[in-house]
Amino acid sequence: MLRNKVIFALVLLGIAFALSSAYVYAVPSKPLPPVFNPAPNPYAQGIYADGIVESSQTHGANVNLYPEVTGTITHILVAEGQSVDAGTPLITLDDTVQRATVEQQEAQVGAAQALLDELRAQPRREALEVARAQVDLANAGLKSARDQMSKQQRSFELAPESVSRDALDNAVNAFKVAGANADMVTRQYELTRAGAWSYDIKNQERQHEALVRALAGSSALLAKYTIKAPADGVVLSVQAAVGTYVSPQGAYDTYTQGFVPVLVMGAANGRLDVRCYVDEILIPRLPPAAGIHAQMFIRGTDTRIPLEFVRVQPYVSPKIQLSNQRLEKVDQRVLPVIFRFEPPPGVSIYPGELVDVYIGDK
């Protein structure tokens, strides 16, 4: 009997617990208030678009800088947020091998120039004096041989037995040899006095020109090891460190496991743009360019900023997820519309920030 009473009491207790639990969980809980009010549509027929803040550019978006050569970063010469002028060195790469190549070619150009100067400076005064002296010596030898031959001939004419035929022939032959030698050294003198052959000079000029052009190419390549600012602007992001190996693909990013620009620059005018991506199904609802108005809402705040219409980028392209532009693509296509605004005082806005934008006609 007692056992049945205990079981009955437990059953009643379970039923009471179940009913109370059902009542408690059935009562709707009061929702928590939002951290910030969602961006309201300020236009009666306004359309919504995602926007990303970027520095104000006349054409395109921010400037992504990639090295044109491969190498290891040796120095980073600027800091993020720094304003730079066009041509300012930003990053240097290890150029040891290329610099040695340039120095070697500079030495080759110098040697070729020295040889060319030597050819153009001919005849050398000392060499010309030696050639002139050889001519004088040969003429003196020719005169001596002529006088000796004349004596032998006159003696033979007066008394043939006084001179042997052999001696007379030797005197005649000696005169001919002396004449040939005098003619040879005279021609050698004329050749020395004429200087270097014009074809030798032209050939050396071509070799020198070829070396100069090779040096210019190597010097131009050496300059690529220093990344310079292509225009006046502000350094927005440096995405590599000293010792990082970079290539024309950029620097390897550990987090996305892809390649990113080594450095990103924006305009230095202090103004900011908003690039909005309008869904393709909303494109027909865009107002005419003359009547476009827009407002930007900063996420996490109740701040709204009026926007100035700049231009429509007239090319509908696939929407790209901002987390990784190379890997994450979707089928949705969007039309970029660019607006401009002046950052209000006391409001911090940076390039790359995502914002909500409503576009309307009034």
Structure description:
The protein has 362 residues and is an alpha+beta fold. It folds into 4 domains: 47-56 and 270-360, Beta Barrel (Elongation Factor Tu (Ef-tu), domain 3), CATH 2.40.30; 64-94 and 226-266, OB fold (Dihydrolipoamide Acetyltransferase, E2P) (Beta Barrel), CATH 2.40.50; 101-119 and 201-222, no CATH class; 123-195, Helix Hairpins. It contains 5 helices and 17 strands. The strands form 4 sheets. Strands 1-12-16-14-13-17 form a 6-stranded antiparallel beta barrel. A 4-stranded antiparallel β-sheet has the order 2-11-7-4, with no helix packed on it. Strands 6-5-3-8 form a 4-stranded antiparallel β-sheet, with no helix packed on it. A hairpin with a 4-residue loop joins β9 (251-253) and β10 (258-260). α2 (96-121) packs antiparallel against α5 (198-223) and α3 (125-158) runs antiparallel to α4 (165-194). The longest helix has 34 residues, at 125-158. The chain is rod-shaped. The mean pLDDT is 85.
